[in-house]
Amino acid sequence: MLRYLETFYRHRVLLVAPMGVVILLSVLYVLVQPLQYISTAHLFVDQPTPGDQALGGPIGYDNPYLTPAENEAANLSELLSTQSFDAQVGRLSTLAGALRGQALHPRSGLAALHGSARALTDAELDAQLLPAVQQHALVFATGPQVMTVTFSWTDPRIAASVAQTIVSEFINELLLSQREQDKTVVAFYQAQLKSAGTALTNADAALSDYLAVHPDQRSDSAVPTTAQLQLKRDDDHARSRYDDLVQKLNQGQLDLAALSNPGAGGLRIIDNADVPGHSTLSKKLLFQAAAGGLAVALVILVGGLLLLTAADRTLRAPGEVEPALGLRVVASVPELR
Amino acid sequence: MSAAFSQASAAAPPARREQPDQVCELDIPGPLLEGCRQASLLLGGPRLRSLGVTSAIRGEGRTGVVLALARVLYEDYGRRVAVVDMDLENPSLHRRLSSARPYPGLAEMARGEAVLDEVLQPVGDGTQLVAAGAASESPARVLTEIGKRSLLARIAAEADVLLADLPPLLSTSAGRAAPAGFETLLLVIRAGVTPVARIREATADLPVAPRVLLNGSTSSLPRWLRALAAR
Question: Does the predicted TM-score (pTM) go above 0.90?
Answer without folding.
Answer: no
